[in-house]
C-alpha cells in the first residue's frame, strides 16, 4: 500500500509540473572579470620564472633565489585568497531555478533563498523586456522584487495584495503560458 502512495506522489509531481527552468551565471564577460586576477597572477609568476631561469641577474644581487615561489604568504593575503575562491565557487554553484506546478511557483535562487508564490494570489502576469537591474535578488520601485541571473527578459507578476515580482527567464513565453494554463 505504501508503495502505491509513493508512486502516486511521484507521478502526480511529474504531471503537476507545468514549467521548469534553471539558469546559471554563464556570461563570458562576467567570468573574464572574475578570473582576470588569476590570469594576471599566473602570467606574472610565469614571467618571473622565465626571468630568473634565463640567466639575467641584477648588478646589486649576485645571488638570485627562487624562494619567492614558496615564500611566505601573509595572513591578509590568505584571507583575500579565500574570499576570492569563495566568490568563484559561489557564482559557479549559484543558479536561479523556477518551477511552476498546478498551484504554485517555486523560486530558488543563489543556493539558499526560496520563495513560493501561490498561483491563486496572482492578479496579473505579463512577459516583459526590462532594462538591466543587476544580478541576484533586487528590490526596485518599478518591478518590485527582481530575481535575475542573466538577460533582460522575464515575467512580471502582480499579486492581489499589490506586491510585484519580476522573474528573469530565458524562456519567458513558455513561463507565461504555464501561468495562464493554471488561472
Number of helices: 4
Sheet with the most strands, sense and barrel status: 5 strands, mixed
CATH class of the largest domain: Mainly Beta
Structural class: alpha+beta
Strands of the widest sheet, in order across it, are 5-8-9-7-6
The total tally of domains equals 2
What proportion strand?
Answer: 25-35%
Instruction: Return residue spans where pLDDT drops below 50 for at least 5 consecutive residues.
Output: 1-14, 66-70
Task: Report the C-alpha radius of gyration, rounded.
Answer: 25 Å
Beginning-to-end CA distance, first to last residue: 34 Å
Shape: elongated
At CATH level 2, the architecture of the largest domain is Roll
What brief labels describe this structure?
PH-domain like; alpha+beta; 4 helices; four-stranded antiparallel beta sheet; elongated; 183 residues; five-stranded mixed beta sheet; 9 strands
Write the SSE topology.
Blueprint lengths: L1 H15 L2 E6 L3 H26 L21 H19 L1 E6 L3 E6 L3 E6 L3 E8 L6 E5 L3 E5 L4 E7 L4 E5 L3 H11 L1
Report on the architecture of this protein.
There is one protein chain. With 183 residues, the protein is of the alpha+beta class. It is built from four helices and nine strands, in the order αβααββββββββα. A five-stranded mixed beta sheet has the order 5-8-9-7-6, covered by helices on one side. It has a four-stranded antiparallel beta sheet with strand order 1-2-3-4.
